[in-house]
Specification:
Aminopeptidase; OB fold (Dihydrolipoamide Acetyltransferase, E2P); 15-stranded mixed sheet
C-alpha cells in the first residue's frame, strides 16, 4: 500500500529544492488540512544518495540545527549525487519541543516500519521506511538526550548480528570522525528504531547522541556539522578538500546490554553521586532518591552493576520508579 503523504518536491530533479511533505490531517480547525513537514533535496546528476534526518524526537536540537544549516549552505554544484534532508522528522513533536508527538503521543523512534493508515506518527514512519530508505545509500539519524537525559556526545551504529552492513556502518562511523563512536549491541535489535529499520531495508545506518538536557552544545554542534561534510566526502558526493586533515580514530565503545543501565528504585528526587563522563566500578554508588513528601524517610541508594564510563545521566531531578538515571559504556 502506498503512503498517503504527498511530496511537494521532485526527488529526481537537479538543483536545490526546499519543500514540504503533506500529511492529510482532518481536525476541527481545518477539515481538509495537512501537516506540512519540511524536506530538502539537493541533487547534481547521478551518484549516491545520503539521507540525513533529525527531529526524530522533537526536543533534540543539535541535529535539527546542523541540518537546517546544511540545507542553506550546501551548493548543488559542489556535489555529485543526491542529499535528502528531513530536519524535523516527527514534525509535530519538533514544533512542540517534546520527545513525542502532541497529536498522538507517538514516539517516532519506536514506530517503524509504520502504517500508511495508522496514527500521524505511524504514517510518518511508513513514509520514511517505504519511500526514503529505498532511495538511500547511507542513512544518518541525528539525536541527543533530549529534555530528560544528558550524554557524553558520540556518533553511533546498531550492530546487527551477522549483517554484511556492519562493516559499512563502521567505515561510515569512523569517517564521521566524532571523538567517541558507540556501538549498540542489544541481544535482540529493535526494528522499531529508525537505524535498525533502515538496515532491514539494506541501508547502512548511523545514529548518535550529540548533547542533551534540552539545550544546544555549541562544540558538539560544530563537530556534527564537520561530520556531515566528512560523510559526503566518504560517500563520494564531494571531492576531498586540499586542506583535508585525517581525523584520529574515535574511541570505540559499546553498550552490551541492560546490566549497564541504572533505574530509579522509587519515586522522588534523584541526587547523582558521580559526574557525567566518570569512570566507575561495579558496585559504585550511582545516587540516592530522596523523599521531600516524607523527609524523615531515609534516602534509597542505587548502584552500578558493571564497570564502565558514565556516558548518560538523567537531567531531570524528579524521578518515577523505573526511570533511567544513568547508563554506562565500555571500551569495545
Amino acid at each position: 500500500m502506498s503512503s498517503r503523504i504527498i511530496a511537494e518536491i521532485d526527488y529526481e530533479k537537479d538543483g536545490k529544492q526546499v519543500g514540504w511533505l503533506g500529511l492529510p490531517h482532518s481536525v476541527t480547525r481545518s477539515a481538509y488540512g495537512k501537516i506540512m513537514m519540511p524536506i530538502a533535496v539537493i541533487k547534481n546528476g547521478e551518484g549516491p544518495t545520503v539521507y540525513f534526518q533529525a527531529g526524530n524526537h522533537g526536543d533534540e536540537y543539535e541535529g535539527q540545527i546542523a541540518l537546517v544549516k546544511l540545507i542553506r549552505e550546501l551548493d548543488p554544484a559542489r556535489i555529485q549525487g543526491r542529499v535528502i534532508v528531513l530536519p524535523a522528522a516527527n514534525f509535530p513533536a519538533a514544533m512542540a519541543g517534546t520527545r513525542v508527538s502532541p497529536i498522538d503521543e507517538g514516539n517516532l523512534n519506536r514506530a517503524f516500519p509504520g502504517d500508511p493508515d495508522g496514527t500521524v506518527t505511524e504514517q510518518i514512519a511508513y513514509y520514511i521506511d517505504s519511500v526514503l530508505f529505498p532511495m538511500a545509500d547511507l542513512f544518518h539519524d541525528l539525536h541527543s538526550g533530549g529534555s530528560s537525559l544528558r550524554y557524553v556526545p558520540f556518533a553511533s551504529m546498531h550492530e546487527i548480528p551477522g549483517s554484511p552492513l556492519n562493516e559499512k556502518c563502521i567505515a561510515a562511523l569512523e569517517a564521521f570522525a566524532f571523538d567517541i563512536a558507540l556501538i549498540w549491541r542489544p541481544a535482540k535489535p529493535d526494528a522499531r528504531f529508525a537505524p535498525v529499520a533502515a538496515m532491514k531495508r539494506g541501508v547502512p545506518a548511523l545514529g548518535g547522541e550529540f548533547g542533551g538536557g534540552g539545550t544546544v552544545d555549541p562544540k558538539s554542534l560544530a563537530k556534527v556539522e564537520r561530520g556531515l561534510r566528512r560523510t559526503l566526502v566518504h560517500m563520494g558526493l564531494m571531492e576531498r578538500p586540499k586542506d583535508w586533515a585525517a581525523a584520529p580514530k574515535p574511541r570505540r565503545v559499546a553498550v552490551p546490554g541492560q546490566d549497564w543501565y541504572v533505574y530509579a528504585p522509587a519515586p522522588g528526587l534523584f541526587e547523582p553521586a558521580v559526574e557525567l563522563g566518570a569512570t566507575i566500578r561495579s558496585g559504585d554508588l550511582c545516587g540516592h532518591v530522596h523523599f521531600v513528601d516524607d523527609p524523615a524517610r531515609p534516602a534509597v541508594p542505587c548502584h552500578f552493576k558493571k564497570d564502565g564510563l558514565v556516558i548518560c545521566q538523567r537531567h531531570y531531578g524528579r524521578v518515577e520508579r523505573g526511570d533511567c538515571v544513568a547508563h554506562l559504556a565500555i571500551d569495545a
